[in-house]
Specification:
Layout: E1 3-9, H1 15-23, E2 26-32, E3 40-45, H2 46-55, E4 61-65, E5 69-80, E6 87-94, E7 101-110, H3 114-117, E8 121-124, E9 128-133, E10 141-145, E11 154-156, E12 167-168, E13 175-180, H4 188-213
Parallel strand pairs: 1-4, 2-6, 7-10
Antiparallel strand pairs: 1-3, 2-3, 4-5, 5-6, 7-9, 8-13, 9-12, 11-13
Subunit structure: Part of the 50S ribosomal subunit; part of the 5S rRNA/L5/L18/L25 subcomplex. Contacts the 5S rRNA. Binds to the 5S rRNA independently of L5 and L18.
Keywords: Ribonucleoprotein, Ribosomal protein, RNA-binding, rRNA-binding
Function: This is one of the proteins that binds to the 5S RNA in the ribosome where it forms part of the central protuberance.
């Protein structure tokens, strides 16, 4: 197990009561899935969730639920405040260690590409990879080596070296990163012309504003 969480059972509460839970530094949540007669509403420390999100949000978790016992779960859904982006509620799904699951893992870029060293720019298109495996085989990350990529090159899902027991659920041709050509630097004359045009546009704008005020 990668993580262990201590939780408390709670009754179904009103929005006001849930708000008080959050003010106390805790978060409401629910556990559901095969093996449970019905969803179990829980409360857990907010700092536990934050630590989990920082380390690996897709890890397998052992949760000790009072009156029910230890459950093997994974985070299934995180609800955030639309403005502050603070976590408001979290769903956990019970899993079977003997059954394959679908989940996402982060893609970790390794090395600096040849193209970047020559002035190019790396464009990251995918940050996570959808995979299928047994819970015990979930990696912390999938490493993507970009060190050999030149300007114009791409690295696709088919180029990844996946750990044993892990299969990708993405199309093999899906592009993860590409190396873009360096942006053309402006010559001194082009830079002067651009500055003159910007100044002219500014004067036109000021003139238009003066007319509007009359």
């Amino acid at each position: 197990m990668n993580q262990t969480l201590q939780v408390e059972q709670r009754e179904v509460m009103s929005q006001g009561a849930l708000r008080q839970i959050r003010l106390a530094g805790k978060l409401p949540g629910v556990v559901y899935g095969k093996g449970l007669e019905s969803p179990v509403t829980i409360t857990l420390e907010s700092k536990q969730v934050q630590a989990l999100l920082r380390s690996n949000p897709h890890s397998v978790i052992e949760m000790d639920v009072p009156r029910i016992g230890k459950q093997t779960v994974m985070m299934a859904e995180i609800q955030r405040d639309s403005m502050s982006r603070e976590v408001q509620h979290i769903d956990f799904k019970r899993i079977d260690m003997n059954e394959k699951i679908h989940t996402s893992v982060r893609i970790e870029l390794q090395g600096k590409s040849i193209g970047e060293q020559e002035g190019g720019m790396i464009q990251i298109i995918m940050h996570e990879l959808e995979i299928e495996c047994y819970p015990k085989d979930i990696p912390d990350a999938i490493v993507a080596d970009v060190s050999t990529l030149a300007v114009g090159d791409q690295l696709s899902v088919s180029d990844l070296k996946l750990p044993a027991g892990v299969a990708s659920r993405e199309e093999a041709s899906t592009v993860i990163v590409s190396i873009l050509a360096p942006q053309k630097a402006l010559s001194e004359d082009e830079a002067d012309a651009a500055a003159d045009k910007a100044e002219e546009d500014r004067k036109h704008s000021e003139a238009a504003q003066a007319v509007d005020k009359k």
